[in-house]
Amino acid sequence: MKVLKVLILQAIMIVVFATSCTKKLDTKPIDPLVTTSATLLDKPAAYKEFLAKLYGSLALSGQKGQFGAPEIQASDEGTTCFLREYWAAQEVTTDECINAWGDGGLVEYHGGIWSDNNLYVQLMYERLFINIAYTNEYIRDVNAKLGGLTGQLKTDATGYVAEARFLRAYFYYIAMDLYGKTPFATETDLPGTFLPKQISRADLFKYVESELIAIQPLLPETNEYARANRFTDYALMSRLYLNAKVFTGTDRNTDCITYCNKIISANKYTLNPSYKNLFLTDNNTLTNEIIMPIAEDGVNTESYGDMTFVIHAAVGGSEDATNTFGIASGGWGGNRMTTSFVNKVFADPSGATDKRAIFYTSGQDLNISNPTVFTQGYLSAKFKNVSSAGVRGSNDTFVDTDFPLFRFAEIYLNYAEAVVRGGAGGDAGTALTYINALRQRAYGNTNGNINAGQLNLSFLIDERGRELYWEAFRRTDLIRFGLFTGGDYLWDFKGDIQAGRATDAHLNVFPIPASDLLLNGNLTQNQGY
């Protein structure tokens, strides 16, 4: 929690897609109460306030620090938020999550039967590109002012631009992962004057890579909580290179190891002794492992599309919502694990051996025959709106638990996988040490340790599931391992039948929404849609 105070923003209205009627983007308004890009940065504090808006777009639906004034129109405002949309794209489409609500778009997500008219495909796309537009606007406006700044404000503003560029690179990384070839614009492209051209996936990879490298010397090694620093950049680089073969056709495992080593050798991050505490309201104190979170606060970040969604949607049945999860009684009765995931990944789902199996099983049938019955399927109790001392969050609707975007455990996993895939600059013995460190934390002893012969790709995809489930990795991981589509790995209702069936490889990327194809003649659809 402890979200940055600057997330309580003034009503900063940014003109992203339209020019003014005078055809001058820098025209100042007659009304002094109206804020535009021409007046936005007149006050020194506004540089940081506007930057906070960019971070706020990871969790919030609109221009206010509280729920309301949405930037994207939908019947359920919560579905327009970045975290909710990204989490659903990465989890509901996989074996880690099946939803009970019967929402058409989510049924299509899990069944692998979505189209270019799927609401969730469209809302994720719209959120990504409005967030990219905000970063472009910020970079453009602050760069225009930098020449006239002096002293500490100039130093700070230069760093702020680097953070905005990091966020833009992160959003483009996700767009590349989800949609492949996408529209592309930077701060040099004035809003409202053109239709963005489409960039290939391989070229977008090069752009994200070049941006992350360029800003490294501009980012601080240590930053304010929930803001990007140099190690956040390194963490995204390791993730980018680990998935390079999917994105470009060429593996970059050696580069992945290089960036993992940069983080590990700095001795800035370690594994927190308690796995379960990483997902509670006071996880903001665990910066030894959490490299960068999405900050949440039940008072100041009211949203139905951030961690409020992740926690509430997982609660129902006979669970004690209030005392155990710190939320209003009842929960939303939506998301739970598939039978296939539990059986494949956790030999003992009770949590008695591997304590990462934080499931609720009382009154729940492991087997799922009807996706809309919430009591079918084990429930994930990983995230809660309570502290490590058992104290409930500040609000029983909007939660205080931060979402870990990057944490140190992923770096150990990335290193090990890149080594197993043949990358240079690391070694199998060190990789084994890192994996066993994760397992010793999970087991509380060495009983779960593996030997060198067990460290292979089949083990690693399951270990990533054990360590990272419900942290928005699964779809990307399954694609990299060749298991997301096709018939090599089936799970409940994959292919929209209970036993699961093979799906077509075109589903490894989502379609460009039909609505954007109609608006922008520069775009072509992904193959298979």
Question: What's a concise summary of this model?
Answer:
It contains 17 helices and 8 strands.
Explain what this protein looks like in three dimensions:
This protein has helices at 46-56, 82-91, 104-111, 119-146, 151-179, 201-215, 230-242, 244-248, 253-265, 307-312, 321-325, 339-345, 408-420, 428-443, 457-468, 474-480, 514-519; strands spanning 98-99, 182-184, 197-199, 290-294, 335-336, 359-360, 379-380, 403-407. It has 529 residues and is mainly α. The protein has a domain at 5-251: Serine Threonine Protein Phosphatase 5, Tetratricopeptide repeat, CATH 1.25.40.390. It has a two-stranded antiparallel ribbon with strand order 1-5. A two-stranded antiparallel ribbon has the order 2-3. A two-stranded antiparallel sheet has the order 4-8. The radius of gyration is 22 Å and the shape is globular. Mean pLDDT is 92; it is low at 1-27 and 29-34.
Give descriptors for this structure:
529 residues, mainly alpha, Serine Threonine Protein Phosphatase 5, Tetratricopeptide repeat, two-stranded antiparallel sheet, two-stranded antiparallel ribbon, globular
The secondary structure category is mainly alpha
The average pLDDT value, as a whole number, equals 92
CATH topology of the domain at 5-251: Serine Threonine Protein Phosphatase 5, Tetratricopeptide repeat
> Largest beta sheet, briefly?
2 strands, antiparallel
Query: What is the first-to-last residue Cα distance?
Result: 41 Å
Radius of gyration, whole Å: 22 Å
How are helices and strands ordered from N to C?
HHEHHHEEHHHHEHHEHEEEHHHHH
Tell me what the CATH architecture of the domain at 5-251 is.
Alpha Horseshoe
